Amino acid sequence: MEQKWHWMIIVLLIGLSIAMAIAGAWAMRNSPVLLFDGEAVTLREGIEITHIDDVEVRPTDLWKLPTFTNPRREQEWWQAQERFSELLHSKDHVILEFRDRLQTTWQIVADIGKMGYGEVVSRLGLVYIVCLIYIISAVTALRRHATLAGFLCALFLASTALYMISVAPVLHRPLFLDPQWLNLMIKVFFVSSTGQISLVHFAMVFPRRKRFLQEHKWIVAGFYGYAALISVLYLYGMISLATTLPFLFIWIVIMLAGVAHSMIEERDEFMRKQMRMTFFALLLVSAFFTISIVFPWPLESSLINNMALFSLILPFSLILSLDNQRLYLDRIAVEVNARKEKERIHRELHDTVLNDLASISIVAEGARRFLGSDSDMVGQRLQKIKDYTADSSRQLRNFLWVIDDRQNTWGDVIDSLRRLGNDLLSSRNIVFEIETHGEHKEIQPPSPAAKHAVYQIFREALINVSKHAQATQVLATVTFGNACVVIVISDNGRGFETDQVRDRSYGLKNIRQRITEIGGELVIRSTPGQGTQLIVQLPT
Fold it and tell me: For the domain with range 409-540, which CATH number is right: 2.60.120.230, 3.30.565.10, 3.40.525.10, 1.25.40.10?
């Protein structure tokens, strides 16, 4: 369910990004543009526009973004945009007055037109391509990593894509954008930028969750509560765009401190290298974002393109860190499983072959004592030696079969179970049959642990039948499904009360333990006088 919500949030952000990309391109295409000799009029370094017709233009009126710390001054900026919009929509041409650093003034007549599609694409295309990479990276991160860190990485990438898509038309407009579209773009830009606080959260959980987050869960709620609060305050005009700058620096420091702390505390050298790569990527991009916000946006807004290209460090470095972490953890898991398998093999050999060999030694010593005195007793001892040797050989052959990669299909398992059933039951005049259902060739081959467990479960079940069931027939069926293998062992013996035998049967306890170790399930159905069914379900 949590993963479903994660996907819903990312899909929502992607949908908003697509909608804002279309809206931004449409707004640039349909907003009025001042043209002189067929070229869009833009501000040049050292030259300012002082009047448009009779309307006075203050230097701050043509700022790309209203980066004021005072909400009143930001409101004045918006009022200026409204005046310019009304003027440009009411005329076909206007007189522009310019002034340079030497206080020289001059005028030109500028036509009022619209931006061509090619010009819109040339201004927005690069940023939109970068944002597409961010979106693809977000989907990739969430698809590959079904973890909190993976979701936070995807959330940051998707919100950053929306952030850049929304601000691109604002910064790339020649001079003006219709106020209603400009207002929408800036508000979406502001709200989506608060979503980047997820990167702070990411720094607190990668490569593993900080201990203080487990003890103080309200801290995470504080992160997102702050983001929601300033979004609401800005949307209602209670704070200005630049009011949050001091807090931005605080969040950057917290984020970098979190990554640095993880890098210092991490004892594994491989993970420290991953953290180091992540730290420097975050440091570089944070510095670039900070510089772009602290210093005024240039007149020709190439910085948004540079920022977009430079910020591509993040999606690749974050996803690479997550991928490397997962591969590393997978390798550790393989090593742990291999160690467990070695321990299991050691235990199996100790409990079977070594015990049988010890018994052979004891029986042989006893037989030696009876040489020349009791030939019958010697014969009995030698027969026990033969039986123990045969059993040890069978156990060793089973072990070799388990670890043999050349016999690693379910077909090989079925053949082995068929031989086992005939060996154990034919000497007791019990008819044994085994049937298969489904296509085992399409099923994932069993692991050595699963092969051994199936063999031992089957062996234990048939030994129980031969000793206690008084059966004349045993039928085993193996059914291959999409996600599991079901083994049913049925006999026509005397049956038993399952509640009475459940905790007393050593054989059933062994079967339950082996099934639990490989994540399977066991069901036993039996009624006195009507035989027994043992049903084993194993995951594939």
Answer: 3.30.565.10
